[in-house]
Amino acid sequence: MFSSFEFLPLLLKGTLITLEITFISLAISLVFGVFVALARISNIFILNKIASVYISIIRGTPLLVQLMYVYFVLPELGLKLTPFTSAVIGLALYESAYLAEIYRGGIQSIAKGQLEAAYAIGMNYNQAMKRVILPQAFKNVLPAVGNSAILLLKNSSLTSFIAVNELMHTGELLATSTFRSLEIFTLVAAIYWILHYPMTLLVKHMERKMDIDSNKRH
Amino acid sequence: MKTRNVVLGLITIVMLAMLGACGGKDAGSKEAVGKESTIETIKDRDKFVVGVKYDTKLFGLQDPSTNKVEGFDIDIAREIAKNILGDENKVELVEVTSKTRIPMLNNGDIDAIIATMTITEERKQEVEFSEVYFEAGQSLLVKKDSDIKKVDDLKKGDTVLAVKGSTSAKNIREKSPDTTVREYENYQEAFMALKAGHGNALTTDNSILYGMAQQDSNFIVLEETFTDEPYGIAIKKGDTEFVDEVNKVLNELHESGKYDEIYEKWIGEKPKN
Hints:
heterodimer, A: mainly alpha, 8 helices, B: alpha/beta, D-Maltodextrin-Binding Protein, domain 2, 5-stranded mixed beta sheet, 15 strands, 39% helix, lipoprotein (chain B), ligand-gated monoatomic ion channel activity (chain B), Iontro_rcpt_C (chain B), transport (chain B), Transporter substrate-binding domain-containing protein (chain B)
């Protein structure tokens, strides 16, 4: 009799790739999302329109379609990417659109008076954004960003469709070659749960911290 | 409270993993359960439900304009339906992939698998097989101007594309351990990836590759085959009555010359006996 734990080394290899994809694409989207959000609230018409269209397309189409597009269609336009790079780009573009909307909500939740006060002490728009508005907005949106990161971790399983050897892909290959779906997918699910749990705790911690801070202010 | 949640979560995971560990080597294999044999089920339903490929030219390919699925495997399925139910149209074609076909059979979603399925010892642990109904061999599909003329030309750094759940990926890893193997959901995706330049070659049975080469003349199938791939019709484990019935149909097809007719219709030549 074989123990299902014999599959763990291979699954953990896949887990490592899952984490790489998730955190690289998250790092990119955390930054890119800010620029998209700023473009979205910008008074410059063309910037605003580009950001709006980008967000609309990304949020209005399934992630799987986007991944397929990056992996299968871009080579026809002369841009050939590895499965890993395609996955990172696909997930980063997807996550950026969602984060941009979260950031936008955060920025717009800051009272108008804050911006006016910043102008009153001689700051220009960029300085006011950098020093006054964005720090407060980020603090407000941290829990939402955390939840979005958890979703990104789970969404990374879709990259198995473009042959990325991440956790889900590894699980599928093991299941089809050994016919032991019960054990393998149970382990895969357990690993995803273990990965998501610390992130959930972190989000809860941030939410509590924010509650304490807002209570202090009032 | 927080600690209790973590402990409960970990206990659940350990229990699930232990449940998995109890599965043993043959966790997937099931004896045919239930009172009715597959033949009786088919007769009661008045329809033969068969798992076929929808993406494999020559064997089972769906025409997007008509939604009709046609191919060698489909014609074999129709002949079995004709034999059991007296009408070749009393057949329901359910799409399967290399990855989903055995679970679908074991779940009772389909009565049989006729889907370019190679008979292997591992698979015999899971399902019953009919006699061989098609002899194929694994080969490579490459660009016409490729340097790869035979499987031994594959070198470190080359990428070979295959399909999840097929024997091809396993075979190519053994035959050419230095190459990178990427596995896709189905043949059309693997072929799309090859056309997009994501690999140097695509590997599966030559019979399937010939269909792909017909779709795009920029690609050729290498003459050399490096494995034998005997296709069998898969039936639920333990249902020997239905296996015998299917074998009887296959023998009749050979004796009547109908098999040669179907073979020539799709493969374009008479079978090599």
